[in-house]
Amino acid sequence: MDVVLDPQMLLLLGVIALGAGFIDTLAGGGGLITLPAMLLMQVPPVQAIATNKLQGTFGTLVSTLTLLRKRQLSLDEVKAACLSSFIGAALGAVVIQFIDASALDLLVPVVLLSIALYFLLAPSAGELERKPRIGDRAYRRFVIPVIGFYDGFFGPGTGSFFSLAGVALRGRNLINATASAKAMNLASNVASLVVFVLGGKVLWTLGLVMAAGQLVGAYLGSMALIAGGAKLIRPLIVIVCFAMVGRYLYQNVWL
């Protein structure tokens, strides 16, 4: 199906992607801004998900490279986790091309609400390193591939899921968990994007315009992450998660 967007719509979606890139770098969930925006512009769902991967990959690439350059992230520490995320996402991207993504409309709000309540009701979570609740091997073999699969299958909120898993299951502080989440999210984005490109689902013009906005937003978000720390990340995660839930309820209950 051909999708035609006029220059004003392309510019608007580019600006939306800039804001989403900033928020996604800090708290995850940028896809819940860009994906509904594309659907609102009458982009077919699977093509919207595929194009969202293209523009989102640029954002996670910039934020990951910035964190590596600023020594907030070690590639050696996350490469195994990134491989697990890559494999899970590739499988998810294959499955979504045969299944209706609306099946997640009941599950995702519950998970997002749980993340928001966790950080809201456990204000000290992520301030200090704590004893892990799950071993690193089990975490890499089971938890990360599942989140990666979700990212390939649908995607929005993946950064929040990775951050929460790092804090709640591996006992990491919020800065480190969020930095690692960027690398794992990059791996899952790349894997799903490759599958969608091979399937011919990506809208290149739209995706590249939004990618330009993502590049700027992700860089600004990375600088804010380094400067602001957990005090900035925590409220954003809570706000973004509640906003996602509100968007889901509005779209699927009241409309």
TrEMBL record:
It comes from Pseudomonas matsuisoli. The lineage of its organism: Bacteria, Pseudomonadati, Pseudomonadota, Gammaproteobacteria, Pseudomonadales. This is Probable membrane transporter protein. InterPro entries: TM_pro_TauE-like, TSUP. Belongs to the 4-toluene sulfonate uptake permease (TSUP) (TC 2.A.102) family. The chain crosses the membrane at residues 12-35, 78-96, 102-121, 142-169, 189-220, 232-250. The keyword Transmembrane helix applies. It comes from the Bacteria. Keywords: Cell membrane, Membrane, Transmembrane, Transmembrane helix, Transport. It is a multi-pass membrane protein. It holds the Pfam family TauE. GO terms for cellular component: plasma membrane. PANTHER family: MEMBRANE TRANSPORTER PROTEIN YFCA-RELATED, TRANSMEMBRANE PROTEIN YFCA. Its main location: membrane. It is found in: Cell membrane.
